[in-house]
């Protein structure tokens, strides 16, 4: 009789453990779905187009909610557009309605000269000029020689921007906010 009681108690503990485990898994999945749809998306940098600020293989998160506060010049953004074959990480250079011009490796926006302190000293941007429509943004990679960006894809819209800013968590040597 005592063994039957022990077996019944063990069976109840096993059932409770299984129920608790399934409940924890379900709650975790709901939290993950909420996080990647409303709070932050995982980001893995693929390639060297954002060097020296972001490196190939950097992994972290980008804030979805932060773009609700507006897209500003020089923000680092994650773009998911039908123009691209995958998500890309770029820097906002031009805002809607502006004329963006590079002349002799210098950025001019609506005729005003801008410094770009985030660029490597050896960065070279070929001369070009573009005027944006009222709903367009011009995005460039920090490593201009290898970046496929608005010079290749054309301007992007606010709807193409999934998230803003990148918090790099891995590798540990690259931890930081960009």
* Secondary structure tally: strands: 11
Number of domains: 1
Give, in order, the helices and strands.
HEEEEEEEEEHEE
Q: Overall 3D geometry?
A: elongated
Descriptive notes:
With 178 residues, the protein is an alpha+beta fold. The chain has helices at residues 2-39, 150-153, and strands at 40-44, 59-63, 76-79, 88-94, 99-103, 106-109, 112-114, 128-131, 138-140, 161-170, 176-177. It has a single domain, classed as Ribbon (Umud Fragment, subunit A), CATH 2.10.109. Helix content is 24%, strand content 29%. Strands 1, 2, 3, 4, 9, 10 and 11 form a seven-stranded antiparallel β-sheet that branches. Strands 7-6-5-8 form a four-stranded antiparallel β-sheet, with no helix packed on it. It is elongated and about 90 Å long. The model has no long low-confidence stretch (mean pLDDT 91).
List the helices and strands and how they pair.
Blueprint: H1 2-39, E1 40-44, E2 59-63, E3 76-79, E4 88-94, E5 99-103, E6 106-109, E7 112-114, E8 128-131, E9 138-140, H2 150-153, E10 161-170, E11 176-177
Antiparallel strand pairs: 1-2, 2-10, 3-4, 3-10, 4-9, 5-6, 5-8, 6-7, 10-11
Brief descriptors of the model:
Umud Fragment, subunit A, four-stranded antiparallel β-sheet, single chain, seven-stranded antiparallel β-sheet, alpha+beta, 2 helices, 178 residues
Quick take:
This protein is of the alpha+beta class and 178 residues long.
């Amino acid at each position: 009789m005592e063994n039957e009681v022990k077996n019944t108690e063990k069976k109840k503990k096993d059932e409770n453990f299984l129920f608790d485990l399934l409940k924890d898994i379900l709650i975790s999945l709901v939290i993950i779905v909420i996080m990647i749809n409303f709070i932050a998306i995982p980001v893995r940098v693929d390639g060297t187009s954002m060097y020296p600020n972001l490196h190939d293989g950097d992994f972290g998160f980008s804030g979805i909610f932060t773009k609700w506060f507006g897209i500003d010049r020089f923000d680092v953004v994650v773009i998911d557009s039908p123009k691209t074959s995958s998500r890309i990480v770029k820097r906002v250079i031009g805002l809607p309605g502006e004329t963006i011009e590079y002349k002799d490796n210098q950025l001019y926006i609506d005729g005003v000269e801008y410094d770009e302190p985030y660029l490597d000293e050896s960065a070279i941007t070929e001369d070009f000029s573009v005027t944006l429509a009222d709903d367009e943004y011009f995005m460039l990679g920090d490593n201009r020689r290898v970046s496929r960006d608005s010079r290749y894809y054309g301007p992007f819209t606010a709807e193409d921007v999934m998230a803003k800013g990148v918090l790099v968590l891995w590798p540990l040597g690259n931890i930081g906010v960009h």
